[in-house]
Amino acid sequence: MVEISRGTLTRVRPNGTKEVVAETGGGPNGAAIGPDGKVYICNNGGLKLTQDGSPTEGLPPGYTSGCIQRVDLASGKVEVLYTECNGHPLRGPNDIVFDSTGGFWFTDFGKVQERQKDRTAIYYAKPDGSLIKEMIFPIDGPNGIGLAPGDTRLYAAQTFEGRVWQWDIPRPGELSRTQGEGGPLLAGPGAAPYDTDETAAADTVAESAPVQANQNVPPVEPRAVERPAVAGLEGQAPSLSLVRPQTPSPLPARNTGNETPAPASAAPLPRPPKRR
């Protein structure tokens, strides 16, 4: 298991005793055992914590980026496999799942600060450090990720929107738009009811992303397009990505009392009727 605030990969014995396998630093978030028997970790780079140890908005001291790490369970050796993709740093890798060919998918949740939030992506990579592809971009707050039986479909949960998206996998490391009722939106606000065959996989992914759905935010339909090859990986097949969506209608703004006055040339607002 990973301990985010402690920065460790920890082994828990059947009798309940614990031992630190490796000190990863940063914030080890998701972990999975790869085809080579080593543990692959999504390290979010660390979290800013309050005095009582709860995560809060902002960047932790010394933060530089997130990364994907590989840990040898026998020796505790920690290796860094990926810190960026095509020149874009990984901000806060979150969850990871391996397919039957040995490649893995992972989400990058990003970082949330007081006045800004990262727009991040979902990636596909190989465990030997030879390939990383940005597969879905942009997507806000991707959290849990999982595969259907037979690796035929990819599922990813969005934390803030409370939605689960799905994409078909025609070949390992490739995506295409899911057809049929609901399309790529499997569950959450704006989705059609999903069939019982997909319930288990979708629920497993959704459990790792607390539902904070805003019913006023319409679902954005993803469209796959080709992206340029990753630098240094010429000859590899191009990845797929989401086209940047149109901005949804904004929600009503809150009156904070700090609004900038309108210029003198602006048309005056109508006065409310007098109360009797």
CATH architecture descriptor name = 6 Propeller
CATH class: Mainly Beta
Strand content: 25-35%
N→C terminal distance: 67 Å
Low-confidence stretches: 194-203, 206-217, 221-269
| Structural domains: how many | 1
Number of strands: 20
Structural class determined from secondary elements = mainly beta
What is the tally of helical segments? Answer: 1
Measured as a percent range, the helix fraction is under 10%
| Cα-based radius of gyration, to the nearest Å | 21 Å
Name some characteristics of this structure:
about 280 residues, mainly beta, Neuraminidase, 5-stranded antiparallel β-sheet, 4-stranded antiparallel β-sheet, 1 helix, about 5% helix, globular
Short description:
The protein is mainly beta. The chain contains 1 helix and 20 strands. The chain is 3% helix and 33% strand.
Describe the overall structure.
This protein is mainly beta. It has a single domain (2-242), classed as Neuraminidase, CATH 2.120.10. The chain is 3% helix and 33% strand. The chain has one helix at residues 199-206; strands at 2-3, 8-12, 18-23, 28-33, 39-43, 67-71, 78-82, 84-85, 88-89, 93-98, 104-108, 120-125, 132-139, 142-147, 153-158, 163-168, 176-177, 185-187, 224-226, 240-242.
Per-chain topology:
Elements: E1 2-3, E2 8-12, E3 18-23, E4 28-33, E5 39-43, E6 67-71, E7 78-82, E8 84-85, E9 88-89, E10 93-98, E11 104-108, E12 120-125, E13 132-139, E14 142-147, E15 153-158, E16 163-168, E17 176-177, E18 185-187, H1 199-206, E19 224-226, E20 240-242
